[in-house]
Specification:
- The chain is an alpha+beta fold.
- The protein has 3 domains: 160 residues, PAS domain (Beta-Lactamase); 85 residues, Helix Hairpins (Orthogonal Bundle); 151 residues, Histidine kinase-like ATPase, C-terminal domain (Heat Shock Protein 90).
- Strand 3 and strand 4 form a beta hairpin.
- Helix 1 packs across helix 2, helix 1 runs antiparallel to helix 4 and helix 8 runs antiparallel to helix 9.
- Bound molecules: adenosine-5'-diphosphate.
- The site of adenosine-5'-diphosphate (ADP) has 21 residues, from helix 8 and helix 9.
- Pfam families: HATPase_c, HisKA.
- It catalyses: ATP + protein L-histidine = ADP + protein N-phospho-L-histidine.
- It is found in: Cell membrane.
Length: 484
Amino acid sequence: MKQSIKFKTGFFLATILLIAITALSALVLFNIRNYQRQEFERTLMERGEIANDYIKQTYLMESIVDPQAFIHTRAAALVKRFDLISGLRVVLYDRDGEIIADSRSYLPTVAVEKMMPYALDGQNVYVQRGNTVHFLTPLSNTNQQIGVLRYDDDVSAMNAFYGLMTKRLMSMAGIVFVVTLVGAIVFSHPLTKGLAQLTASAAAIEAGRPKEVVRLVRKDELGELSEAIWHMGETIARQMNALHSEQDKLRHAVDDLEAMGQHQKRFIGNVTHEFRTPLTVIKAYADLIQMYESDRELHGEAAAYIQKEVSRLSEMVNRVLRLTAMEHYDFQLKCEVLNLGECLEVAVQHVHGKAQHRGLEMIQAFEPVCVYADREAVMQIAINLLDNAIKYNRPNGRITIRCFEMDQMACLEVADTGVGISESEKTAIFEPFYRIDQSRAGDDESSGIGLALVKGLVEKLGGQITVEDEVTGGTRFTVRMPIA
Ligand code: ADP
């Protein structure tokens, strides 16, 4: 069970004080009792002496010579006389210890046989019974003991005073105990409260919530301790924050690594898949050549197919290499100020024959606008977009190619009248090897790398590429690059 320091300190102090006061009271009471006894004994002795002096004077003045006859004759008068002087019951005994006279004979007799031999032997002796003290003093005339005188003294006032003193001292001890206990509790309350707050602060640090540490404003050891704990909390909070941010960085790095791993796996899977088709065709024709060695016509046809597949394979390898280089190595761009229109004219010439072959009309609208870019990259972007506009167009369709300046950006736009791209696939087409439908291209030229390459190049040049539907049907790709 938890014991509060507040109560323990209070109880300890109060107990110490109680012990001190009790010891002091015992000493005081002992001294009172001692003083009372000394005073009382002195009074008794005085009474004995007064009685003896009186007896001696009376005896000398009397005509009776025999001491026993004197005492027997004068006993009643003597006890009355002593009673009058002292206000106490006085009893007179002869030399044999027998009662001769009692000033208050109506009171019950008191047995004092045990003390009598001492009194008869000339000694003063007394005994206390309750509130009454029986004092026996030897009586003598001039040269011999003639009897014993007994005084019965009431000591109730003396006992009452002693009792009262005892009670008062005990009450005082009780009051001091309670006051000390309460005072110590009240005094140590702020201390224990501060300690409780420090305990809570330490618990908060332990639970990993150092921001909850309380700072005590005190100019004592507790204040110093609180300051130390507060600084400790601050340091731990700072370290925890640093740790959390490091953890976040690490988590992001792990996520990135995982994503990169997945991407790598997908990429390798796709490359393997894409390379398998032309290789299968090449292998099939090579087998045919081997089987029909003498068939010249077949040889010619196989050679044409093998050539076509090899050039496709080589184009794919080039594209894959470019894409990989762009993703994994520091891609070196040779940037210069380029007239975009001029670049596009060259690109159009590049695909002109193909477009003509498909009966496509090509419309060009080039406004004067310059970019600071790598010529090779711009050419690849334009040729890829034009190539797609041809591949995915309808027979006798149209391709519009424009360049202009808008919002401080150089824009390159390639629009076609082809099959179009659904909304859900407008993002996916920029993924490497993503193809909507191979049959769309009209031949097997599709590899799914073109747009990924275009997007990568555009981003390397600090631009953006977007794809929208043409109002008249078809697709419009827009590339925005920083103006030179
Ligand atoms: P591909 O070699 O298949 O053309 P791309 O990365 O250039 O690879 O294009 C990805 C896919 O996007 C294509 O398979 C095609 O389905 C679609 N696509 C690209 N350009 C167009 C376009 N102009 N019109 C319609 N579909 C297009």
